[in-house]
Write a structure and sequence with these properties.
This protein has one domain. Helix content is 36%, strand content 20%. Strand 1 and strand 2 form a beta hairpin.
Length: 50
């Protein structure tokens, strides 16, 4: 799995409030990465105070 993640051809764009990750349409594991990121968003390791 680690080698598959290291060989991603993706574009990363950063704005003041968002991080955009764009995959090639031919990348076969894009849906897996999307699911992993959705799970991380639901269960963050650190939550801001307040």
């Amino acid at each position: 799995m680690r080698l598959k993640l290291l060989k991603i051809g993706a574009r990363l764009r950063l704005t003041a409030r968002k991080v955009w990750l764009s995959f090639s349409e031919a990348y076969p594991y894009a849906s897996d990465i999307v699911q992993i990121l959705a799970n991380l968003k639901q269960h963050p390791a650190w939550s801001p105070p307040g």
